[in-house]
């Protein structure tokens, strides 16, 4: 405890193995906690209402300091690394207003018929990736390539170029190393080429929508902003990768829930929301920095100190959710919305698309492979030791 505030050591094996229990324990001790790791510490709001309020509080802002830039980025690529997420309120709001019409729930629903063939093609190909014991890595051959295939479809990348984009997506998902550094200029060059094609030949895709986007004053997105938006899409694609993999792992680990979802496929939209609440990939929100001294529950948070929301704790807060530790795929609509896509001005712009992707992916997977099973015991799943994200290295299954 620090002055009565519980402390969570992010390097503790117990926290790495089960962050939901760790954040839940802190939440029941008090509304504010301190999380730390070597060279890193921040304040965390542990309870739903407080976390939600902080995410919408202008006294806490996302800045460039909220992100750790990958090493080795070529200097000419740096202007494209500053995404909309880390921009100050006026600039962020301008860009969000310009691009929001391309990311509505209706646009995501309209995209479903173009998404379904992408999912089916990956499922067709799964048997080819089986190894000697009959297992196939669903992370490597389904969950990971799907979002980059979707991005290619969204921005009009030609079929011939899509295998390279899969390689870029895999490098970005890895998060570091030489391949990551090489992928960034390749993605940016591909984005510039796709934008040029769509300026010359408009189509029915996201880039065409963005090229046409204008605010009330007629201010268009600049070419740099357009390329940055494509890069942001590649980064945002990590959420559906991890959500799909986590969801499949949970369903295959809970046969009763899997059987219910197979018997009641109409539950899928609500099931996706519940899975995002119960095992969504975001454990901590992107850190915000206090713009002034702020007192939180008797603790003074100084100007410039980092504050985050415990998404893992808030999404299982009994003050907001009935029986929150129970996975309920039919959880009634109208309960508190989960914070898996954050909240407030930085609510995930691609949330509707991520939802549709996950619905289509899970529906098709369960239909196509009724005998799907984990190739190892559930507790043997290898997780990436990432303090902010709940994600798998691999997901071996038998078909």
Automatic annotation (TrEMBL):
InterPro entries: Cyt_P450 (IPR001128), Cyt_P450_B (IPR002397), Cyt_P450_sf (IPR036396)
CDD domains: CYP107-like (cd11029)
Pfam family, one: p450
Database matches in Gene3D superfamilies: Cytochrome P450
PANTHER family: CYTOCHROME P450 YJIB-RELATED, P450, PUTATIVE (EUROFUNG)-RELATED
Family the UniProt entry places it in: Belongs to the cytochrome P450 family.
The protein, known as: Cytochrome P450
